[in-house]
Amino acid sequence: MDHRPGLDPSVAEVRRAVRATLDTTDGSVVVALSGGADSLALAAATAFEATRRGIHAEAVVIDHGLQEGSDAIAADAAAKAVSFGLAARVVRVEVGAVDGPEAAARTARYDGLARGAADVGADTVLLGHTLDDQAETVLLGLARGSGGLSLAGMPAERRDATGPRWVRPLLGIRRRTTVAACRAEGLDPWSDPHNVDPAYARVRVRERVMPVLESELGPGVAEALARTAEQLREDAEAFQDMIDETIEDIVEHAEAGISISVAALAANPAALRNRIVRYVVESEFGVALTRSQTLEVARLAVDWRGQGPIDLPSCVARRVGARVEVVARAGD
């Protein structure tokens, strides 16, 4: 516990969260630093806690090149990290045009952070997402009808098949706490104009929707949404365990794709059956099915009336005897 005289409670809260992460971390760590209040408070706490544990920590600043003067903004963020004891580097990334600007920037950012971690030799990347970010993610998923996995929000920790371990130490901390921590430590966060641009759905949720919910329903809405995400993530993990156990017995390789046993697919409850369909297609072809596409594929097993092949992104699903085949589309 942090009880030293003069230590601001907000600083202590952020440091405790980082300490809990570093206590389960082996080797070097990288802090994703944008220069905003959340990542700046995270970087300062990491510098303090890592030094005490003899852990090498380095800040990686991603320059997306999307704004005039982005190189100067990135350099300033790196300089702030150096001022409180972190090594720092700037990684310039190229943002593509696929899947919209937000998704493309996110993909480029994570790729850049993974490269930065590899350069440092770090196995762990710390991300500055807060409880408010989690609540916004849940609301966006709800509005888009994205299903339970989307409503489960961001995981506190995940590891890619290849690449670093991604950890969000501040996922239980409010944004106002990171702002207060920066103020208490005399840090001057950068205000990204994109964070107040109503062209972005997340900004509209943050600036318009959440204040109305808090006003009309009372305080604690963000915490309730974050709890919902945590509970749904537990459900999603349980379903994934079931899928992993089931899939080896019911899925086989087919020419140019895969096939699933009709009898086994139909025997599963709808929630598990639909997840199996989505998981199999995404794993094999790297595409995410919509709800309606998923149900159409499932009907090949549970409501077979001789319907023809179903066109899906990059692939085709069809009934072949006692199996549902999902194969690459001819010419792709």
Using the CA coordinates, give the radius of gyration: 23 Å
The biggest sheet, with number of strands, parallel, antiparallel or mixed sense and barrel status, is: 6 strands, mixed
Number of β-strand runs: 11
Proportion of helical residues = 40-55%
Quick one: CATH superfamily of the largest domain? HUPs
Q: Strand order of the main beta sheet, please?
A: 3-2-1-4-6-5
CATH top-level class of the largest domain: Alpha Beta
Indicate the structural class: alpha/beta
- The CATH topology of the largest domain comes to Rossmann fold
Segments where pLDDT lies below 50 for 5+ residues? none
Overview of this structure, please?
The chain is α/β, with parallel strands linked by helices and 332 residues long. The chain folds into 2 domains: 9-221, 3-Layer(aba) Sandwich (Rossmann fold); 255-328, 2-Layer Sandwich (Uridine Diphospho-n-acetylenolpyruvylglucosamine Reductase, domain 3). Helices cover 52% and strands 15% of the residues. It is built from 12 helices and 11 strands. The protein has helices spanning 9-22, 37-53, 70-83, 101-120, 131-144, 148-151, 175-184, 201-217, 221-250, 262-267, 270-285, 291-302; strands spanning 29-32, 57-63, 87-92, 124-126, 157-159, 165-167, 251-254, 257-261, 310-312, 315-320, 323-328. It has a 6-stranded mixed beta sheet with strand order 3-2-1-4-6-5, sandwiched between helices. The chain has a 5-stranded antiparallel beta sheet with strand order 7-8-11-10-9. A hairpin with a 2-residue loop joins strand 7 and strand 8 (257-261). Helix 9 crosses helix 11 (270-285). The radius of gyration is 23 Å and the shape is elongated.
